[in-house]
Amino acid sequence: MGIKAIAKVKHDVATVKLLVRHPMSSGKLGGGKGEPKFINHLTVKHGGRVVYDMYPTSAVSKNPYIKFAFKGAKKGDVIKVWWQDNTGASEKKDIKLK
Amino acid sequence: MLKRLIKIAIISMISGSIVFAANFNAQAEKDRKAFVNYFLKKFQDPVKNHAQYFPYVSVAEIKKDYRYPLSFQDFQDGSLAWYKPSREQFAELNEFPAYSLEVDDGEALWNKPFANGKTYSSCFPKGPGVRNDYPYFDTKTNEVVTIGQAVNACRVKNGEKPYKYGKGKIAKVIAYMAFKSRGKKIHVTIPSMAAAKAYEHGKKEFYKQRGYLSLSCNECHVKSAGKRLRAESLSPALGQTTEMPVYRVKGNGTLLTLQARLAGCVKGTGAEKPKLQSKTLRDLSYFLTYMSNGMKLYGPDTRK
Asked: pTM of the prediction?
């Protein structure tokens, strides 16, 4: 569905901002006839180590914005973002740290 | 001798009418200067003139929460210009703005060719960065033309179905155009008598009281700009069109055009919702945009 990212490294610390395109709907709004579709697991890995792990529910609004920081990063490193939702769809993307 | 007299008479008539032609916006300029001066004066020193303009806020709260004095360009931020707590929250929100997804969609829609092979560039030869050229008064049809109408006119001319106004795909295309027009100045002109009439109609609509609360645009966005309405801080009418189309955080985030926002606000004050792209709303947007002449655009932007 699309993941936009801004990832910068300053000294040893990487600050990552992600905008994940996803409806995150509970299926109950507007008459409530749709099926729920929301991300229920999102992980970011750096060099094999998990640096961000998230288990959201339908309470998170659409197109979630995620911001976090971690130590031990260098410019040019690649982090891998992966999410899956309750219907089984998933997406992954590699992001280069600037 | 008679011929000479007739020549002089004709020349003076022509020069007289040229002088008159430039004056279709004489009244509008007077209105605009008064409008701008009112707001600049109001937000110059809220502590000093607190009794006159901000009677329901304590001086301590003004010193803590209000940002002043405001320059002319500051009014592009609406209520975020003067209310510090909102401004800080929105600065955080805009670190990675949610409307960036809408602008990307708009770019894809702009670049996708129609069924006949042409793109929007054939109707907008200067490119998408022309948001500041709208709304304008078309002297051939004697109507105010908004950017939404221009986009749909382009679609119909090339054999496509027009978009529905207000939100959705048309808002995304306009968002892309607005994004490309950031920093350009508003420059609405009044080129004819009919345009001056449309301006006057828009002005009347702005000051007209409507609905069961008898509220007018003027009541909340001029007289009460800087005050609070329940949990909202009212935005000043100066610079209100610079952030269009606006990404509203309420209701799970929707991108709305100026037409939808004007109609929605009228409905929200308890009056009958005007039709999008009706003469009422188009003339009102003509008046409102004229008042912000000279201000740089910054669209789209996030608002509550």
From this structure: 0.86
